[in-house]
Amino acid sequence: MNFLDKLKAITAQNNSLLCVGLDPDLSKMPEHLQAQEDKVLAFNREIIDATHDLVCAYKIQIAFYSAFAKEHELASTINYIREHYPEVPIILDAKRNDIGNTAIFYAKEAFERYKADAVTVNPYMGFDSLQPFLEYKDKGVMILCRTSNPGARDLQDLKVSGKPLYLYVAEKVVNEWNANRNAMPIVGATYPEEITEIRAIAGDIPFLVPGIGAQGGDIEATVRSGINSQGTGLIINSSRAILYASQDKDYAAAARKAAEQTRDQINQYRIVSATSSKP
């Protein structure tokens, strides 16, 4: 089963467009876990067990692991999901990009070492730097297009051939780089007008959408702007607002409650958007 088929199946099964980001901040983890040797894995397991039936994916930001030499716990977290909840796709958020053999080995890292279902990449160096990732036809390749941070405007608003760079990249993703039907844009929830523009270009292609929760993206605006003709097409990520809904021993239960509320809020606007779009 390729990434898109897996995403479609879990979206229907869990009635969810919510992606939970497994980004463990050691300073925010519950005190009772701090003495454990593999505290990151222990934390992640509890979050996963509590939320697996509420999500359409998990996104794992590699920096939270590599900064503290926790790559083994990253791998163990992925293995835990694959063993216990194999129906849930895993996105490795690494934003990799380079040329030649370096790109080839970055692709191997994501898809062969960590066995992720999808990876995030940076398109700045052009197609040849993306090609090694895209050649894994059953894997998802999520390409930075309109990012959620305030500084996105520094470069992404610059005009290329008369249009903003983010729209130029979106057209490349859809029309040139998607030969294997595994390329998709990353579009930040903090820019709903741009989500609308990119949806008009992308048709029903799914977007990875970071930026709700702690980053301030609005769920209603995100869903109304980005939902596709099938009432899906969004992988809406929330990390801190769910992971740290509580920093006490009840953190997993609190994370489940926060995830369920977020999933249900997203679905509320999916229903409204689908109804309002009918002739």
How much of the polypeptide forms β-strand, as a percent range?
15-25%
> What's the overall geometry?
globular
What portion of residues is helical? 40-55%
Number of strands: 10
Main beta-sheet strand count, sense and barrel state: 8 strands, parallel
Mean pLDDT: 93
Q: Report the end-to-end length measured between terminal Cα atoms.
A: 35 Å
* Spatial strand arrangement across the major sheet: 8-5-4-3-2-1-10-9
Helices, by number, come to 12
What does the radius of gyration come to?
Answer: 18 Å
User: Which residue ranges are poorly predicted, with pLDDT under 50 across at least 5 consecutive positions?
Assistant: none
The chain-level structural class is: alpha/beta
Q: Which sequence of SSEs, written as H and E, runs from N to C? A: HEHEHHEHEHEHEEHEHEHEHH
Describe, in short, the structure shown.
With 279 residues, the protein is of the alpha/beta class.
Describe the structure.
By secondary structure, the chain is α/β, with parallel strands linked by helices. The protein contains twelve helices and ten strands. The protein has helices spanning 3-14, 39-51, 63-66, 71-84, 100-113, 127-134, 152-156, 165-175, 192-202, 219-226, 240-243, 251-276, and strands at residues 18-21, 57-61, 90-96, 118-121, 140-146, 159-160, 163-164, 183-187, 207-209, 234-238. An eight-stranded parallel beta sheet has the order 8-5-4-3-2-1-10-9. The protein has a two-stranded antiparallel ribbon with strand order 6-7. The radius of gyration is 18 Å and the shape is globular.
